[in-house]
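Hey, sorry to bother you again with one of my protein questions. I've been staring at a protein lately and its backbone has me curious. I owe you a coffee for this, so here goes:
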Amino acid sequence: MVVQAFLAALAVWIGCVIEWIAGYPQTMRPIVMGPLVGLALGDLQTGILIGAQLEAIFLGVVAVGGSVAAETATASGIGVGLAVIFKMPIDQAIAVAIPVAYIGVVINSLQYSLATLCTPLVDKVVERDNYKLYTFTVFGLTVLLNGLRFLGIFFALVLGGDAVVGFINGLPSFVMSGITAAGAMLPAVGMAVLLSMLWNNKMALYFLLGFSIIKYLDVPILFVAIIAVFLASVEIIRDMDLRKKLDALKELGVSAKVAKADDKINEKEGFFS
């Protein structure tokens, strides 16, 4: 168990270090972190399943500056670790990972605080005008600061894994049913929250189209996703064509108001055609 906890924490640490030094390629997102931890623990399928569901839950959660609403990397590591190491059902592991994401914000805040304390050291390195030393210092601090997350996940799984499993196993059956139902429902709630931010009358048509296809044609959701990709591509191409027409009108001396009005007319005609 100790070795598996170490591997889970190491996988999260690697993903976080890559995120910090490689220009934020989104390796801390659950959709990436879940499979990474699952791969490290030898159960890629469970990592993909948990990572995808956690991503659906936290899809609308993004970091704005130093403000982090939920620490999804830690949640992914703990969730996949509980499911693989302690054989916890996926829905229950997701239900446990949700509060962990918000507790993990404390670790994230501590990292930022320590990084602030290291700023004078970085300033001194910059004054020396030594690029290699600066690179080594920044990378070294990145590795060390993310070690806090590594330690948090490692000790949580080693010291708290059995306690969490024992606590959940000791709960009454109706409570367990509620936890399982909540874990299964949370991805839908996450998608609903995100959809509420983007909802408009035009999107409602696409939503009803996808719902109707799945409900009445009984086709795999992957098929609907492929259709959605094609529809999105058509929208993008159409918008690009409208922009080109607008630029052409501007070059011909047509006023911006007339060009925008024509743009709206073409958009409506294209939508209802």
In short: The radius of gyration is 24 Å.
